[in-house]
Write a structure and sequence with these properties.
By secondary structure, this protein is of the alpha/beta class. The protein has ten helices and eight strands.
């Protein structure tokens, strides 16, 4: 990626937008555990190792890119196909598709998500500074329920999903859709995400300040893009103007 950096003091910020999965929320245990526990409830034994391979094969065979912006019927087909692939890879017989349908419901359930350890403290601190907080994510509309289950909804002012926007990140249109809800200027916004090719590139193309969340310390730096390793670092990166006062 050709990433740029603006030299000089950082501009004042009043709005912080975040990606969802991998940034604010994660599986309550792991996606492998979700599958293993589901199958155990169905009376089927498997292992975490088998589940991991099942996911890797299914991810390759049934790619998820673009499914969130498809009509509801096609999204249902995607989940049924993906769930069937998981079961097949676990050597589970499902001739009538009932197990796949049940697994699909489990994989889309808000109850399988939890907040990262640093999400609540970071959002709470930003909220106390009167910042606007939003989420921009490649997700279906039920993302709000997942954020609520994770205990984060009380801090979040707006949620914009790709299902709502009709495009997925890194398309700048989804960022523009989110900002149109608040009317905040681009220069006053920050976007935080964990996937450079989607989050950082998309925010840059939309003209929003980008922050790469690298919890796993994958790299010392990404070009000249600002990088953090925990969300609690955010409030110290920029001078902050309270959104409420700016709006008055």
């Amino acid at each position: 990626m050709d990433l740029e950096f603006t030299v000089g003091p950082p501009p004042e910020k009043e709005a912080f937008y975040f990606s969802s999965v991998g940034t604010l929320i994660r599986y309550d245990t792991s996606r492998e555990a979700v599958l293993v526990n589901f199958l155990e409830e169905e009376g089927i034994e498997t292992t975490m190792a088998v589940a991991k391979i099942a996911y890797l094969v299914a991810d390759d065979a049934v790619p998820s890119k673009g499914y969130t912006v498809k009509p509801k019927g096609e999204r249902e087909i995607y989940w049924r196909t993906y769930s069937s692939a998981l079961l097949k890879n676990c050597r589970v017989e499902d001739p009538d598709g009932k197990i796949a349908d049940a697994l699909s419901g489990r994989l889309r359930s808000p109850r399988i998500w939890n907040a990262f350890y640093d999400a609540k403290p970071a959002l709470e601190s930003l909220k106390k500074l009167d910042c606007l907080i939003g989420v921009i994510a490649n997700a279906e509309a039920n993302l709000s329920a997942s954020l609520d289950h994770a205990g984060l909804s009380q801090y979040i002012d707006t949620v914009t999903t790709s299902e709502e926007a009709g495009v997925e990140k890194p398309d700048p249109a989804i960022f523009q859709k989110a900002l149109s809800k608040s009317g905040i200027e681009l220069k006053s916004c920050v976007y935080v995400g964990d996937v450079p090719e989607i989050d950082i590139l998309g925010a840059r193309n939309a003209g929003i300040t980008q922050i790469w969340l690298d919890r796993n310390r994958l790299a010392r730096r990404l070009g000249d893009i600002r990088k953090i390793e925990t969300l609690t670092e955010l409030e110290y990166l920029f001078p902050i103007v309270p959104h409420r006062k700016r709006s008055e």
